[in-house]
Give the backbone structure.
Amino acid sequence: MLALIVEFRIKPEHVAAFDAAITENARASREDEPGCRQFDVCRDPDDERLFFLYELYDDQAAIDAHMRSAHFQAMNAATADWVESKRVRAYRRTAP
């Protein structure tokens, strides 16, 4: 299983809209993508502009399918100008 850790810093005027868009993307990923096992959206309690995603996928093919999905493509295009910074890290899950 592979884990993606994604950290976003969002421009202040777009925080509420980004929250709604990323939450919907997470829901669609969990419900519509067989290879997506978990998709958590987290926020820093001290910095409303900082979002943290924790995603678990069966394998690289499942990540690739997620990146090609219509809901991801739409969310990514709609929010691109709202993002001040983005960092993506990939890990191999070793436990449990």
About this structure: The chain has a mean pLDDT of 98. The longest helix spans residues 15-32. The chain has one domain: 2-87.
